[in-house]
Write a structure and sequence with these properties.
By secondary structure, this protein is α+β, with helices and mostly antiparallel strands. The chain is built from 2 helices and 15 strands. InterPro entries: Beta-glucanase-like, ConA-like_dom_sf.
Length: 254
């Protein structure tokens, strides 16, 4: 009996000592973690980048948009959850809508159906960012004049797309795309080391051109969707009604 008593007491004492030792180890490990974290320089600590949630306009309505038509009537409406915009023939109509809010750095995208536009028509489908006439970044799609079409060797089923910064600095790049297709047009605005905008134009995630601008986030942009009859986009005043469909617009800030 005495032997069993000592055996039981020894076992209990051992468990008590093990428990104390374990608590001591846990406490030391916790303290060590705290000391280790605080010793890491702030610039090297992990952090989660702050990203603005994706803003999407599906064009089930025109909430958060306003008319920006310059010439003619506001020729647009919602059609099967698309924004349909058009201009009439033999006019210089410039039909536009713009976002109510203005934005800065981030990624701007437009999902656009590009139809067969009138041959030689001076008409443009626009997806662009605008602050004023010298702070404007554009996609402009149209038939193009015959001289430029020959320079680019454009096929009969191809249209011309311009990617443009209107000033600060001026930049323009022209390329081709097939008509009667849906495209995602994107302008990415980031900042360089000097806090100036770097603009990148993409179609279906393929880069067309990039340009560093002379200004930064003090200049914010409203988002535009448009169809305009513009003299530089073809060879004659439009003979046909030209249109575009906008399925959605998105903005992802950063």
């Amino acid at each position: 009996m005495l032997k069993n008593y000592y055996k039981t007491a020894s076992l209990a004492l051992g468990m008590l000592l093990f428990s104390c030792a374990s608590e001591d180890i846990i406490e030391k490990n916790q303290n060590a973690t705290t000391v280790s974290d605080s010793s890491i320089p702030t610039s090297l600590r992990k952090s989660t980048p702050r990203v603005t949630p994706l803003k999407t306009w599906d064009f089930n309505d025109l909430n958060e948009w306003e008319d920006a038509t310059q010439v003619g009537n506001p020729n647009y409406w919602i059609e099967n959850s698309n924004l349909r915009i058009f201009t009439n023939p033999n006019t210089w109509e410039r039909v536009k809508i713009k976002s109510v809010a203005a934005y800065a750095t981030g990624s701007y995208s437009w999902r656009v159906f590009v139809p067969a536009m009138g041959e030689g028509d001076m008409a443009s489908i626009g997806a662009f960012l605008y602050n004023n006439d010298t702070h404007e970044l554009d996609f402009e799609i149209g038939y193009g004049d015959q001289v430029l079409r020959e320079e680019l060797n454009a096929a009969p089923d191809e249209l011309i797309v311009y990617t443009t910064s209107q000033a600060n600095p001026y930049h323009s790049f022209q390329s081709k795309l097939k008509r009667e297709n849906w495209y995602t047009l994107t302008i990415d605005l980031s900042l360089n080391a000097k806090k100036k905008y770097v603009a990148t134009w993409k179609i279906d995630n393929q880069i067309l051109s990039t340009r560093t601008l002379t200004y930064g986030t003090n200049t914010k942009f409203k988002i535009f969707c448009s169809v305009e009859n513009l003299s530089f986009m073809g060879d004659h005043i439009p003979y046909t009604q030209n249109y575009a469909l906008f399925d959605w617009v998105t903005f992802q800030g950063n």
